[in-house]
Write a structure and sequence with these properties.
The protein has one domain: Orthogonal Bundle (Arc Repressor Mutant, subunit A), CATH 1.10.10.10. 45% of the residues lie in helices and 5% in strands. The chain has 6 helices and 2 strands, in the order αααββααα. It has a two-stranded antiparallel sheet.
Length: 149
């Protein structure tokens, strides 16, 4: 490694805001048995209530949470935290995954058929990220995030 080229404090590969909100909301729900209001989740986890509501709807559509409307409504996990895999969470809410992918260097001609210089290198890193997401359960994240400092 060239001196001065240590790993910077940036990330080229990261989870979307929707995926991050999903994980935080699911961690919150994993520690509660009763239905929880989206407003309570947003306050406790410091999340935008409007965006969180949209994310919770996507999670409900994917059957990762159960949502109930009304005065006695709220959200709860549809499955035990041990059965929820992070790759499923990200797939349920990350709309960017469903569309056309963008080149990290923003080269319009970059594609699998005409890759830029970074294409295959970053594809390997992306495969590593998905491997980590496929092998991590919500219960693993919840235990780590809620551990006292």
């Amino acid at each position: 490694m060239i001196k001065g080229h240590e790993s910077p404090k940036i990330s080229l590969i990261h989870l979307s805001q929707a995926a991050r909100y999903s994980v935080l909301a699911l961690v919150y729900l994993s520690k509660r048995e009763a239905l929880c209001f989206a407003t309570d989740i947003s306050k406790e986890m410091r999340l935008s209530p409007t965006f969180l509501a949209k994310v919770l709807q996507r999670l409900a559509h994917a059957r990762l949470v159960i949502g109930k409307r009304g005065l006695h409504g709220g959200y709860r996990l549809a499955l035990a935290a041990e059965k929820i895999i992070l790759a499923d969470v990200v797939s349920a809410v990350d709309t960017a995954m469903k569309g056309e992918r963008q080149c990290v260097l923003e080269m319009r001609a970059c594609s699998a058929g005409r890759p830029c210089v970074m294409h295959h290198r970053l594809k390997k890193a992306e495969v590593g990220l998905w491997c980590a997401l496929r092998t991590t359960r919500l219960s693993d994240i919840a235990a780590d995030m809620l551990r006292p400092s």
